[in-house]
Design a protein that fits this description.
Elements: E1 3-7, E2 21-30, E3 36-45, H1 49-69, E4 74-81, E5 84-87, E6 100-105, E7 108-118, E8 123-129, E9 138-140
Antiparallel strand pairs: 1-2, 2-3, 4-5, 4-9, 5-8, 6-7, 6-9, 7-8
Length: about 140
Protein backbone atom coordinates (compact mmCIF):
# COMPACT_ATOMS: atom_id res chain seq x y z
CA UNK A 1 0.00 0.00 0.00
CA UNK A 2 1.28 3.43 -0.85
CA UNK A 3 0.19 6.44 1.12
CA UNK A 4 0.40 9.94 -0.19
CA UNK A 5 -0.08 12.89 2.09
CA UNK A 6 -2.01 15.70 0.50
CA UNK A 7 -2.23 18.70 2.70
CA UNK A 8 -4.02 21.93 2.82
CA UNK A 9 -0.91 23.46 4.34
CA UNK A 10 -1.11 26.96 5.54
CA UNK A 11 1.42 28.66 7.70
CA UNK A 12 -0.27 31.59 9.29
CA UNK A 13 2.26 33.69 11.11
CA UNK A 14 0.90 36.72 12.85
CA UNK A 15 2.92 39.16 14.79
CA UNK A 16 0.86 40.17 17.79
CA UNK A 17 3.15 41.01 20.62
CA UNK A 18 5.70 38.45 19.29
CA UNK A 19 3.06 35.72 19.16
CA UNK A 20 3.36 33.27 16.26
CA UNK A 21 0.39 31.07 15.33
CA UNK A 22 0.62 28.12 12.95
CA UNK A 23 -2.27 26.07 11.57
CA UNK A 24 -1.75 22.88 9.58
CA UNK A 25 -4.07 20.29 8.08
CA UNK A 26 -3.27 17.08 6.20
CA UNK A 27 -5.09 14.16 4.60
CA UNK A 28 -3.50 10.74 3.97
CA UNK A 29 -4.88 8.94 0.91
CA UNK A 30 -4.33 5.33 -0.18
CA UNK A 31 -3.07 5.68 -3.77
CA UNK A 32 -4.34 2.22 -4.72
CA UNK A 33 -8.01 2.91 -4.09
CA UNK A 34 -8.20 6.67 -3.40
CA UNK A 35 -9.71 6.11 0.05
CA UNK A 36 -8.87 8.46 2.86
CA UNK A 37 -6.78 6.86 5.60
CA UNK A 38 -6.93 9.83 7.90
CA UNK A 39 -7.29 13.55 8.35
CA UNK A 40 -5.60 15.69 10.96
CA UNK A 41 -5.37 19.32 11.94
CA UNK A 42 -2.91 20.93 14.26
CA UNK A 43 -1.98 24.28 15.53
CA UNK A 44 0.66 25.73 17.77
CA UNK A 45 1.38 29.08 19.20
CA UNK A 46 4.35 30.67 20.88
CA UNK A 47 7.54 28.70 20.80
CA UNK A 48 7.03 25.43 18.97
CA UNK A 49 5.58 27.03 15.83
CA UNK A 50 5.56 25.06 12.61
CA UNK A 51 7.64 22.15 13.93
CA UNK A 52 5.19 21.53 16.78
CA UNK A 53 2.18 21.64 14.44
CA UNK A 54 3.84 19.22 12.03
CA UNK A 55 4.67 16.80 14.87
CA UNK A 56 1.10 16.97 16.16
CA UNK A 57 -0.43 16.30 12.72
CA UNK A 58 2.07 13.55 11.86
CA UNK A 59 1.38 11.72 15.12
CA UNK A 60 -2.37 11.87 14.62
CA UNK A 61 -2.12 10.70 10.99
CA UNK A 62 0.17 7.83 11.97
CA UNK A 63 -2.36 6.53 14.50
CA UNK A 64 -5.23 6.80 12.04
CA UNK A 65 -3.31 5.10 9.23
CA UNK A 66 -2.41 2.18 11.48
CA UNK A 67 -6.04 1.76 12.54
CA UNK A 68 -7.53 2.19 9.06
CA UNK A 69 -5.04 0.08 7.13
CA UNK A 70 -5.04 -2.98 9.37
CA UNK A 71 -6.17 -6.03 7.43
CA UNK A 72 -8.75 -8.42 8.78
CA UNK A 73 -7.05 -11.78 9.28
CA UNK A 74 -9.20 -14.91 9.30
CA UNK A 75 -8.20 -18.55 9.12
CA UNK A 76 -8.79 -22.10 10.26
CA UNK A 77 -6.75 -24.45 12.42
CA UNK A 78 -5.52 -27.23 10.10
CA UNK A 79 -3.27 -29.21 12.46
CA UNK A 80 -2.75 -29.57 16.21
CA UNK A 81 0.36 -31.03 17.85
CA UNK A 82 0.16 -30.47 21.62
CA UNK A 83 0.17 -26.66 22.02
CA UNK A 84 1.56 -26.04 18.52
CA UNK A 85 -1.10 -25.31 15.92
CA UNK A 86 -0.98 -24.79 12.17
CA UNK A 87 -3.24 -22.28 10.41
CA UNK A 88 -4.28 -21.96 6.79
CA UNK A 89 -3.49 -18.21 6.83
CA UNK A 90 0.00 -16.84 6.26
CA UNK A 91 1.85 -13.71 5.22
CA UNK A 92 -0.34 -13.19 2.14
CA UNK A 93 -3.30 -12.84 4.52
CA UNK A 94 -1.35 -10.36 6.67
CA UNK A 95 -0.08 -12.74 9.38
CA UNK A 96 3.26 -11.65 10.89
CA UNK A 97 5.66 -13.12 13.43
CA UNK A 98 4.53 -12.27 16.94
CA UNK A 99 0.89 -11.69 15.99
CA UNK A 100 -1.66 -12.75 18.59
CA UNK A 101 -4.78 -14.14 16.98
CA UNK A 102 -7.96 -15.07 18.79
CA UNK A 103 -9.02 -18.73 18.49
CA UNK A 104 -12.78 -19.35 18.39
CA UNK A 105 -15.09 -22.33 18.42
CA UNK A 106 -18.73 -21.92 17.44
CA UNK A 107 -18.27 -18.16 17.59
CA UNK A 108 -16.95 -17.98 21.14
CA UNK A 109 -13.33 -17.33 22.12
CA UNK A 110 -11.40 -20.27 23.59
CA UNK A 111 -7.89 -18.78 23.59
CA UNK A 112 -5.26 -17.27 21.38
CA UNK A 113 -2.31 -18.28 19.26
CA UNK A 114 1.02 -16.46 19.18
CA UNK A 115 2.58 -16.81 15.72
CA UNK A 116 6.21 -17.97 15.67
CA UNK A 117 6.49 -19.00 11.99
CA UNK A 118 4.74 -17.58 8.92
CA UNK A 119 4.98 -18.45 5.23
CA UNK A 120 2.86 -17.34 2.26
CA UNK A 121 -0.26 -19.39 3.01
CA UNK A 122 0.45 -21.12 6.32
CA UNK A 123 1.51 -20.09 9.81
CA UNK A 124 2.41 -21.88 13.02
CA UNK A 125 2.09 -20.72 16.59
CA UNK A 126 1.67 -21.66 20.22
CA UNK A 127 -1.85 -21.93 21.59
CA UNK A 128 -2.78 -20.48 24.97
CA UNK A 129 -6.31 -21.06 26.18
CA UNK A 130 -8.90 -22.43 28.51
CA UNK A 131 -9.87 -25.37 26.29
CA UNK A 132 -8.03 -27.71 23.95
CA UNK A 133 -7.79 -26.42 20.42
CA UNK A 134 -9.14 -28.61 17.59
CA UNK A 135 -8.78 -28.82 13.84
CA UNK A 136 -11.53 -26.67 12.38
CA UNK A 137 -11.46 -23.97 15.07
CA UNK A 138 -11.28 -20.49 13.56
CA UNK A 139 -8.79 -17.69 14.13
CA UNK A 140 -8.98 -13.95 13.60
CA UNK A 141 -7.17 -10.84 14.65
CA UNK A 142 -8.87 -8.81 17.34
Amino acid sequence: MQVRAISGFRDEARSKANKEEVALSATAINTQNALSLGFAQGGQSQGSGLAGAVDQVASSLNQQILQNSRNRIEGVVTDVNAATITLNAGTKAGVNLGDRLEVRRAGRPIGRVVINSAQDSVSIGLFEGSESVRVGDTVANQ
